[in-house]
C-alpha cells in the first residue's frame, strides 16, 4: 500500500488550528475597533442627551426661544435664544468676509497665475493658518485685533450708522464684529482648500475648450470653471460654516460673552460654545443640564451642516 | 494694420484684456489679504513671547498674580501628560480601525458607514468633545477633573485624523507586497503587522504627529475636564486623577487676567504652542516627501 504523505506529514499547506483562530480573531478585532468609531459618535449623542435630560424635560422646546439665563438657585430659568442667535450671526459675518477672500485665493492658487514652485509654499502657508491653535488667535485677538478693529468700527458707525447692524456706538472692546473677523481667519483655509480641490478636479478639456474659443482667462473662470465647480465650492462653504459654529476659544475671548440679542454687530454678544466654555466649570445642578442642552443644540446644528457639506463634497468627487 | 487684425493674440489694451488683468489683481489681493493674519500672528507671538523665553520658563511654577518671576513648567509637563494619554487611546483604536477599512473591509457597507462616522466625528466641535468627556467620566464620578478626562476628550478629536491618514497610507502600499506575503504562506495578521503596517509607518507617524500637534493646542475640551492647577502634577498614578495644568488652558486663563507678568507668560505659552505646530507641520511635510514606495 503506497500511502501518499498527508498534508500533516509534509507540512505544506498545513495550518495549526490555533493560528487560524488567531488570524480570524485579528480580523474581528480590527472590525471591532472600526465599529468603535460609530459607537463613540453614538455615545457622544446619547451621553449629552442624557445629561441634558432634566433641562429638556423642564424647558422643552421653549428653551430654544427663551432669552432668560438665570442660574440663581431656586429661580433658575434658562433659554438659549441669544446664544443661538450669536452663533448664527457670528458665523454669518465670518462667511461674508471669508467667502470672497477664500474663493479669490483658491482661484489664485489653482490657475496658472504663478509658477508651481511658488504655488506649493503658498498652499502650505494657507494650511498653516488652520494649524495655529484657536487659543493663540484668541490671545492675538485681544491684544492686537481688537485695538486694530476699533477705528474701523467707529468709522462704520459714523458713516453707516443708519444701517441697523452698525447702529450702536462701539464700546472699543470685545464684540460680535471682531469675533466675526477672527472666525473668518480661522475658516479661510477650509474654504480655500476645498474650492481649490474642486477647481483642480475639473477636467482640463473644459479650460482648453473655453480658451480655444477665444475667452480670456477670467471669462473662462467666471463662465465655465466656477459654474462647474460650484457645488464643490458650496460644500466647502458649508464645512466652513460648521467649523465656524463650533469654534470656541478665539470667539469666547473676543465676543464679550453678553447673553443679549442686539441687531448691531458692534455690540458684545455670545455663542453656544462660548457660553459652555465660560460657565461649565463653575456650573452645578440644573445649570449643567441647561449647558448640556445648549451643547446638544450646537451638536445638532453642526451635524446637519456637516452632513449636508459632506454629501455635497462627495457628490462632486463622484462627478469627475 | 492688416496683420494685426488677423492676429489671434488679444490686444492688451482691449476692454476684455483690461477686465482680465483687473480680476487677476483682485485674486492676487485676496491671496495677500489671506496671508496677512498668518504673518501678523506669527510676528506678534514671536515678538511678545520671545522676551519671556528663559531657563526659568521651563523649570519653574507660575508666579502668584502680579509677580514676575517663575515659569510655566507645570503646564508644559501637563500638556505632555494629557496629550500622551490621548495618544495612547487614539492610536490603537485609530490604526486598527483603519486596518479594517483598508485591508479587510473590501469596500463593504460597514466600511462606508465607518468612513461616514469618521467624517462626522471630525466635524464635532472640540467643545462637544469636552462636554462628552465630562458627561462620561466626570459627572458619573468615574474619575474627577483630571488628566485622564482631558486625555479622553482630546483622543476623540485625534481619532479622525489618525484614521484618515492611516487609511490613506495603507492604501498606498502596493498590492504586490501583500500578494508576496500571502504567496509564501503568511497569515493575514502577519501580513498586516509585519509587512503592510511597517511599510506605511512613515505616513502613519506623520498623521499621528499632526494629530498630536492639534491636540496640544486644543483648549476648549480641557477647561472643564483637566481644569487647571498652579502646582506640580503629583507623580502617577495619583497625578493622573487630579486637575492638571496645560499650556493651552494657561494661555486662556492668563490672557484674560489684568496682570502684565501673566499676560507675558500667556504670550510665551503661545509661542511654544505655535513653534510646536510649525515644527511638526514642516517636518511632517518633509517626511512624507520621502515615500517608502
Please describe what this structure looks like.
The complex is a heterodimer of chains A (320) and B (293). With 320 residues, chain A is mainly α. Chain A has helices at 7-10, 17-59, 81-110, 116-131, 134-160, 176-200, 204-212, 217-246, 249-255, 272-279, 286-319; strands at residues 69-70, 77-78. In chain A, helix 3 (81-110) packs across helix 10 (272-279) and helix 10 packs antiparallel against helix 11. Chain A starts with 6 loop residues before the first helix and ends with a helix. The model of chain A has no long low-confidence stretch (mean pLDDT 89). With 293 residues, chain B is mainly alpha-helical. Chain B contains eleven helices and no strands. Chain B has helices spanning 2-6, 15-50, 55-59, 73-104, 109-122, 126-138, 147-172, 175-183, 188-217, 247-255, 260-289. The termini of chain B are far apart. The mean pLDDT of chain B is 88. Classes of the chains: A mainly alpha (320), B mainly alpha (293). The interface between A and B is large, with 90 and 91 residues.
Amino acid at each position: 500500500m503506497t500511502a501518499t504523505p498527508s498534508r500533516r506529514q509534509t507540512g505544506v499547506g498545513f495550518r495549526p488550528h490555533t493560528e487560524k483562530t488567531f488570524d480570524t480573531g485579528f480580523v474581528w478585532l480590527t472590525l471591532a475597533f472600526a465599529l468603535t468609531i460609530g459607537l463613540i459618535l453614538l455615545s457622544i449623542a446619547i451621553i449629552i442627551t442624557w445629561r441634558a435630560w432634566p433641562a429638556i424635560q423642564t424647558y422643552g422646546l421653549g428653551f430654544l426661544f427663551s432669552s432668560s439665563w438665570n442660574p440663581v438657585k431656586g429661580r433658575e430659568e434658562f433659554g438659549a435664544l441669544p446664544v443661538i442667535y450669536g452663533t448664527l450671526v457670528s458665523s454669518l459675518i465670518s462667511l461674508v468676509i471669508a467667502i470672497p477672500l477664500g474663493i479669490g485665493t483658491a482661484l489664485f492658487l489653482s490657475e496658472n497665475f504663478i509658477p508651481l514652485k511658488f504655488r506649493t509654499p503658498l498652499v502650505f502657508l494657507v494650511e498653516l493658518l488652520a494649524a495655529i491653535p484657536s487659543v493663540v488667535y484668541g490671545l492675538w485677538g485681544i491684544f492686537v485685533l481688537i485695538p486694530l478693529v476699533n477705528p474701523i468700527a467707529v468709522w462704520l458707525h459714523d458713516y453707516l450708522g443708519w444701517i441697523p447692524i452698525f447702529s450702536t456706538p462701539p464700546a472699543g472692546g470685545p464684540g460680535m464684529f471682531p469675533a466675526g473677523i477672527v472666525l473668518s481667519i480661522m475658516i479661510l483655509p477650509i474654504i480655500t482648500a476645498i474650492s481649490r480641490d474642486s477647481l483642480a478636479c475639473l477636467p482640463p478639456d473644459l479650460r482648453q475648450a473655453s480658451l480655444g474659443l477665444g475667452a480670456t482667462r477670467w471669462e473662462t473662470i467666471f463662465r465655465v470653471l466656477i459654474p462647474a465647480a460650484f457645488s464643490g465650492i458650496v460644500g466647502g462653504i458649508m464645512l466652513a460654516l460648521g467649523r465656524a459654529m463650533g469654534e470656541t476659544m478665539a470667539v469666547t475671548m473676543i465676543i464679550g460673552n453678553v447673553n443679549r440679542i442686539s441687531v448691531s454687530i458692534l455690540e458684545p454678544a455670545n455663542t453656544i460654545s462660548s457660553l459652555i466654555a465660560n460657565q461649565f466649570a463653575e456650573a452645578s445642578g440644573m445649570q449643567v443640564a441647561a449647558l448640556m442642552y445648549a451643547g446638544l443644540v450646537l451638536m445638532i446644528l453642526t451635524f446637519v451642516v456637516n452632513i449636508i457639506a459632506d454629501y455635497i463634497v462627495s457628490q462632486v468627487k463622484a462627478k469627475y | 494694420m492688416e496683420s494685426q487684425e488677423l492676429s489671434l493674440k488679444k490686444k492688451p489694451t482691449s476692454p476684455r484684456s483690461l477686465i482680465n488683468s483687473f480680476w487677476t489683481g483682485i485674486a492676487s489681493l485676496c491671496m495677500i489679504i489671506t496671508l496677512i493674519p498668518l504673518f501678523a500672528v506669527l510676528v506678534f507671538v514671536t515678538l511678545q513671547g520671545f522676551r519671556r523665553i528663559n531657563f526659568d520658563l521651563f523649570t519653574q511654577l507660575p508666579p502668584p498674580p502680579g509677580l514676575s518671576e517663575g515659569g510655566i513648567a507645570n503646564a508644559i509637563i501637563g500638556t505632555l501628560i494629557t496629550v500622551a494619554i490621548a495618544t495612547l487611546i487614539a492610536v490603537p483604536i485609530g490604526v486598527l480601525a483603519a486596518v479594517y477599512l483598508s485591508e479587510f473591509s473590501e469596500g463593504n457597507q460597514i466600511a462606508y458607514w465607518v468612513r461616514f462616522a469618521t467624517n462626522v466625528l471630525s466635524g464635532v466641535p472640540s467643545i462637544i468633545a469636552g462636554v462628552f468627556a465630562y458627561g462620561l467620566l466626570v459627572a458619573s464620578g468615574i474619575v474627577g477633573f483630571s488628566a485622564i478626562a482631558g486625555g479622553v476628550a482630546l483622543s476623540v478629536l485625534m481619532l479622525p485624523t489618525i484614521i484618515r491618514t492611516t487609511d490613506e497610507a495603507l492604501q498606498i502600499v502596493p498590492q504586490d507586497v501583500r500578494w508576496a506575503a500571502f504567496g509564501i504562506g503568511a497569515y493575514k495578521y502577519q501580513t498586516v503587522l509585519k509587512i503592510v503596517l511597517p511599510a506605511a509607518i512613515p505616513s502613519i507617524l506623520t498623521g499621528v504627529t499632526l494629530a498630536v500637534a492639534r491636540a496640544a493646542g486644543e483648549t476648549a475640551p480641557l477647561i472643564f475636564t483637566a481644569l487647571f492647577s498652579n502646582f506640580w502634577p503629583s507623580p502617577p498614578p495619583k497625578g493622573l486623577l487630579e486637575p492638571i495644568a496645560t499650556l493651552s488652558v494657561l494661555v486662556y486663563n492668563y490672557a484674560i487676567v489684568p496682570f502684565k507678568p501673566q499676560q507675558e507668560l500667556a504670550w510665551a505659552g503661545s509661542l511654544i504652542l505655535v513653534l510646536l505646530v510649525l515644527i511638526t507641520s514642516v517636518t511632517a511635510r518633509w517626511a512624507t516627501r520621502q515615500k517608502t514606495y
